[in-house]
Design goal:
- The protein has 14 helices and 13 strands.
- The chain has about 400 residues and is of the alpha/beta class.
- The protein folds into 2 domains: about 5-45 and about 285-385, Aspartate Aminotransferase, domain 1 (Alpha-Beta Complex), CATH 3.90.1150; about 45-285, Type I PLP-dependent aspartate aminotransferase-like (Major domain) (Aspartate Aminotransferase, domain 2).
- The relative contact order is 0.17.
């Protein structure tokens, strides 16, 4: 008897980690530090919530079906801002709105792959990407990250076969936080183009990149859409995680295929969420710039305080966007260590084994810290707790 599509992959890691909290009490003087999920827990800023309330009350179209590929005004706004920020031409017809960035990835893969095809993804990987490939009957081909947790295009070239349909990258990276250099992304684009495959670049965390200006020049190539598929999330930028709104930027021909997927899954993206994202893009530029500076300060706090852990044998493998990716010094797998940290340190984080195939080494010594919801003080508290561990 064949197994179902969902049985082909593992349980959702974040949900699994939450089960570690069951039956564990956290005293008032040591409340739980939850650094397991890369999502803001605060609601959207008050002006955006007020705008959303007015939309609910006064915009009748917000309660009806809309275009499958998204609100035309939002597609146009994305195209205009991307053209301005990346220095290349993006048209509204090359933009589609999706129900979150995970759906953007799923739609892109559905439009590219059939049973038994292959997609190359760097490891450590974003686990939901692996899960979708598993459930799609697509083989994940792992590309071990090289120095600085940056993937090597030359190594990727050795993995390409006649069944390869895409290379999928995340920058700034989840789980490692590192920002891929522009020349690295350019080299991957050239590699993909030479082999006639797609380059998917998930830029969910682009708004929190530490570099000023465009992080890459991929859109400046007039033929960018023959290879590049870019994914984006409004959720992190405007705290709209519960409203599920993302985007995919690709060729018109690719979006015509993606439209088939979206029409059968959600019919149209959430109408309130799209209008909220549009309002945010038009009105919250200064606010978002302040959010970026706060995240960059937390990144600096990780680096400033890390010597406390380094003195105990820890290593900082990557840091940026919402994440710090670390190597622990203990003689046990991170799969065992992470649940223990809930009980012994009041810390919930994810083990590196959740970001690696089980047959590859490395994940057992690694941990991911998502610091979107802890400030400088919280980061210092976190490191004090981790540094006090003795095993």
């Amino acid at each position: 008897m064949t197994q179902s599509r969902t049985a082909a992959t593992f349980a959702p890691p974040v949900m699994e980690a939450r089960r570690w909290l069951e039956g564990v009490a956290h005293p008032a003087n040591r409340p739980l530090l939850n650094v397991s999920q890369a999502a803001p827990v605060d609601p959207p800023p008050a002006p955006l919530r007020e705008a959303m309330a007015q939309i609910v009350l006064n915009d009748a179209e917000a309660h009806l079906y809309g275009p499958v590929l998204g609100l035309p005004a939002l597609r146009t706004e994305v195209a205009a801002q991307w053209t301005a920020s990346y220095g290349g031409k993006v048209a509204s017809g090359q933009v589609a709105i999706t129900s979150g960035c995970n759906q953007a990835f799923a739609a892109a893969i559905a439009s590219l792959c059939s049973e038994g095809d292959e997609v190359i993804i760097p490891v450590p990987y974003y686990f939901n990407h692996r899960m979708w490939l598993d459930m799609s009957g697509v083989t994940t081909v792992p590309l071990l990250a090289a120095d600085g947790m940056i993937p090597d295009p030359a190594e990727a070239a050795r993995l390409i076969t006649s069944r390869t349909r895409a290379i999928a990258l995340v920058s700034p990276n989840n789980p490692c936080g590192v920002e891929y250099p522009a020349q690295t992304l350019r080299a991957f684009r050239d590699l993909a183009r030479a082999h006639g495959i797609a380059l998917i670049v998930d830029e969910t965390y682009r708004d929190f990149d530490s570099r000023n200006g465009a992080p890459h020049d991929l859109f400046t190539n007039p033929d960018w859409d023959d290879t590049l598929i870019q994914l984006y999330s409004f959720s992190k930028a405007y705290r709209l995680t519960g409203h599920r709104v993302g985007a995919v930027v690709a060729s018109r021909a690719r979006l015509a295929e993606i439209e088939k997927f979206l029409d059968t899954v959600t019919i149209c993206p959430n109408q309130l969420a799209q209008r909220a994202a549009l309002w945010g893009m038009r009105n919250l530029g200064d606010w978002l710039a302040g959010e970026r500076l706060e995240i960059l300060d937390r990144r600096a706090a990780i680096e400033d305080n890390f010597p406390l852990l380094a003195g105990k044998g820890w290593e900082l493998l990557g840091c940026g966007a919402y994440f710090a990716y670390v190597k622990h010094p203990f003689a046990m797998s991170s799969a065992e260590l992470a649940p223990l940290l809930v009980k012994e340190a009041g810390v919930l984080l994810l083990p590196g084994t959740m970001f690696m195939p089980s047959d590859l080494p490395g994940g057992e010594s690694q941990l991911r810290i998502a610091f979107a919801n802890i400030d400088r003080t919280g980061i210092k508290t976190l490191f004090n707790r981790l540094s006090s561990l003795e095993r």
